[in-house]
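INTERNAL AUDIT FORM
Audit reference: QA-55
Scope: verify that the stored structure record matches its stored sequence.
Auditor: D.O.
Record contents follow.
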Amino acid sequence: RLIGASTIPVILLLLMWIILFVEYGFGVDLAFLGVHPLHVNGLPGIILSPFIHAGFKHLGANSIPFLVLGVALFYFYRDLALKVLVFIWLMTGILVWFGGRDAWHIGASGIIYGMASFLFFSGLIRKNNGLAALALVVVFLYGGLIWGAIPGFFPKEHISWESHLGGLFSGIVMAFYYRKSGPQRKKYSWELEEEAEDEGEDDENTYWNSTTSMWIDRED
């Protein structure tokens, strides 16, 4: 299961490194494949920008969190993971294109923020002990990411807080949207008994309502 959960994150990360080596090997700058807000030539960046990085330091800083969070997403939410990742990927790029500064926005950090926020909020919403523990681990390892989503917190660094904020928002949206899908909190026996009693009452009410309707129809 761990190998299966690692497949897509590893492939995506390998593509990022291959592209970076191609840039350095051929002396080309692929920043033009990033998101350029409100410019038509920046639209492809909605899909391509996470693959483009400013250098080895930039990609190196993103690699471990991308891999760790990606594997966690596909391991614990295997039925939802791909849909969640695609939504975060696209929505982050779209939000940056509409609301970002007039510059080229590149890097996978927005996706990282999206996965982190999804894992955290989804774990809290579901009230599942294992997923709640995962949420705490995410906070412990990557809780400091929140500062990167605050405008102007790192004024001297070329950080796209718009990507970070877009990813954070996208992850929250997915956590709430899929709150009733995927792994859920295990229910105790007394909770199941109460649900069975409620269903029995609903069936009884449905019966009496239906017979009343029939009686009214007959009288008419």
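Auditor finding: record pair retrieved intact. The chain has two domains: 2-177, 188-220.
Action required: none
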